[in-house]
Amino acid sequence: MKIGLVLSGGGARGIAHLGVIKALQEAGINFSEISGTSAGSIIGALYSHGYSTDDILSIVKEVKAFRFLQPAMSWRGILKMDVMHKFLEQLMPHNSFEALKIPLHVAATNLRTGMTEYFSSGKLIGAVCASSCIPVLFDPIEFEGELYIDGGILNNLPYEPLRKSCDVLIGSHSNPIDHNFEPKNARLVMERALLLAIGCNVYNRSSQCDFFIEPLGLETYKVLDLTNIDDIYRIGYEQAIKQIEEQKITETCKV
């Protein structure tokens, strides 16, 4: 049985994917292919490369947010992804989809065509950076002659590359909507509008997954805040254990 794992975007909340993967592993579930967007593409790439969930958690803890806040000096965005690209090169020097231990598909939004594109071969890191390029905040990524922004804008649960090749799809969504939002300033309102739009396309796609894990309790954590790494990971892990049992995922995946 081929099992596909679909990882949503979610910024810092994407750390919860590590807890979900850990819980699924402990339940005896292994993945034949992975598809991800934004934070999900980063987690997916590192895991597919061969890093364990504990390894990736340690890597995230070593990351200092200011290292990635390099001014773009451009009308397109206020920050650049160059430092992220160099950081990922250190972790995955092969920079190739073909060198991954688990096949990976990365979703990004083509800024010119307004369409989602999926990458699964060739240069890995450029595709991951394109998929993670939050609009307005980051300068769009030029990759293979096109400009790209965050894949979650159009498709924050990219099940499509896996639907035909996998027998079972498990979706992990790390970016739930907070239903007690307070509009304290314009920046928060803009972030809220973006998250609502992204969240909408997740729930429209969730029915295409055979199982859908959404850790409850992530709503209060800020998308770009890396100060609560352990808490976010714990929520992902504990919620996944509960939802694996409730949905009887193990029984289905071992048939």
Describe the structure concisely for a colleague.
This protein has 255 residues and is an alpha/beta fold. It has nine helices and ten strands.
Q: Can you put this structure into words, describing what you see?
A:
Keywords: Hydrolase, Lipid degradation, Lipid metabolism. The active site is at residues 38, 150. A motif (DGA/G) lies at residues 150-152. The chain is an alpha/beta fold. The protein is 38% helix and 16% strand. The strands form 2 sheets. Strands 1, 2, 5, 6, 7, 8, 9 and 10 form an 8-stranded mixed β-sheet that branches. A two-stranded antiparallel ribbon has the order 3-4. The protein is globular, with a radius of gyration of 17 Å.
For the terminal residues, how far apart are their CA atoms? 8 Å
Continuous helix count = 9
Mean pLDDT: 88
Which radius of gyration do the C-alpha atoms yield? Answer: 17 Å
Helix content: 25-40%
Shape summary: globular
- Largest sheet: number of strands, sense, barrel closure: 8 strands, mixed
Please state the structural category: alpha/beta
Identify the notable features of this structure and list them briefly.
single chain, 255 residues, alpha/beta, eight-stranded mixed β-sheet, two-stranded antiparallel sheet, 16% strand, globular, lipid degradation, lipid metabolism, PNPLA_dom
List the helices and strands and how they pair.
Blueprint (H helix, E strand, L loop, with lengths): L2 E5 L8 H11 L6 E5 L1 H11 L3 H10 L7 E2 L7 E2 L1 H10 L12 E7 L4 E5 L4 H8 L9 E3 L2 E4 L10 H4 L4 E5 L13 H20 L5 E3 L15 H19 L1 H5 L2
Parallel strand pairs: 1-2, 1-9, 2-5, 9-10
Antiparallel strand pairs: 3-4, 5-6, 5-8, 7-8
Helix pairs in contact: 1-3, 1-8, 2-5
Organism: Fulvivirga marina
Protein name: Patatin-like phospholipase family protein
GO molecular function: hydrolase activity
